[in-house]
Amino acid sequence: MHTTVGIIGGGPAGLLLARLLHRAGIDSVVLESRDRAYVEQRQRAGILEQTTVDALRAAGAGERMDREGLVHHGVELRFDGRSHRLDFPALTGGRSVMVYAQTEVVKDLIALQLREGGPLLFGAEVAGVDGADTDRPVIRYTHEGREQTLTCDYVVGCDGFHGVAKRAIPEAERRTFERTYPYSWLGVLADAPPVGDELVYAHSDRGFALASVRSPTVSRLYLQVPNGTDVADWPDERIWDELGLRLASEGSGPLHRGPITAKSVLPMRSHVTEPMRWGRVLLAGDAAHIVPPTGAKGLNLAAADVIVLAAALTERYTTGSTTLLDTYSDTCLRRVWRAEHFSWFMTTTLHTDPGHTPFERRLQISQLERIATSTHAAAELAENYVGLPVGMSAACRPRVTAGCRTDVSGTAAAAANSMSS
Ligand code: RFL
Ligand code: PHB
Hints:
By secondary structure, this protein is of the alpha+beta class. 36% of the residues lie in helices and 27% in strands.
């Protein structure tokens, strides 16, 4: 079998890329090792930047998101028993974010791709990529018990942190940068109304807590826990008690408790693989970089990569130019490193590091106070949180990011930014 773009991995990066390419008239095949139900139910991110929202609309997958997604115009920081709200539109010239779970993004993209896109194979486990430095790279994979090959013009590795695509970059040429953290998150889903109208990020002596939301009746909540924590040690009552203690601040209302329907422990890691392109193999999303989730950047970085890549492949197949493909890695890595820094900053400012002395704790509080009292410091956080523009040549940028400043609640205007328009 031959295709123009062979995509390894059917997570948000692979699925969104397939949709954007389809809209641009470029064939692709998506190979996903897991089954559909598994991919659709993996609990992960919840915050979409404006650029991601626009790209989903451009991919034709914005309808349910625009109906069910919750536009958030700010977040609350709680520390030292106080609460401080960051007003995103005021701090960023009109930007906001959308709360719409990754599970729903993935369901929407899968339904659309199966209805009107190229092949999307579940249970297709890729073993490796050969010929990255030739003009016909080949993906080796197993599907329905048979070993098969897919010949491609280009291969895109959207296969997550543990994927095989990055191995196509010779070891001597691959650079990796990594940091692990001395804590994890216990993440839960609860049939309980959200803590507030907006997300709450809480710094406390007992550790970090985050109160997020999935719908008016479902909360997504996180607690900092030690690495190696066993969920069995966290019965529901203990989780609610701990959330109550960590989220408490002057004037905060009571926590609405309810049945907890899912619990898992997530390790925290920062990781970057460079370069993001080798020959005709390109990496996108978690395959190339991981951030700790405190800045809500993982899914959004994955979307930003494939926006740049879809534009680059569109240029390649409409004009024959490889200029954008040639600059793909550098373009993405600039934004990736900014997000790495922001995610590290949010993580180390808000968590209780077991190795910290009282001196470092005072520094954290001082930094949080600075954010609460200085418009400049608050704007720096807010700009990074709502997302920086996707950097690419002027020829492509406006079609993807127009409407960025005001239109998170969005309508047809953003859909008009379709890559294929
Ligand atoms: P994904 O979502 O990991 O998708 C990769 C896909 O590739 C498939 N795959 C293969 N397919 C075929 N052959 C192979 N050899 C393959 N190897 C792997 C996998 O089955 C999978 O379907 O990467 P993608 O598309 O780049 O998307 C990135 C986002 O998923 C990720 O950045 C975020 O979800 C990160 N993240 C979070 N981000 C947030 O902003 N907020 C969160 O709360 C949050 N929670 C999380 C997370 C990531 C987690 N991981 C990766 C462990 C919670 C978890 C548990
Ligand atoms: C989520 O809703 O799952 C979520 C929100 C913000 C984060 C991380 C996760 O920083």
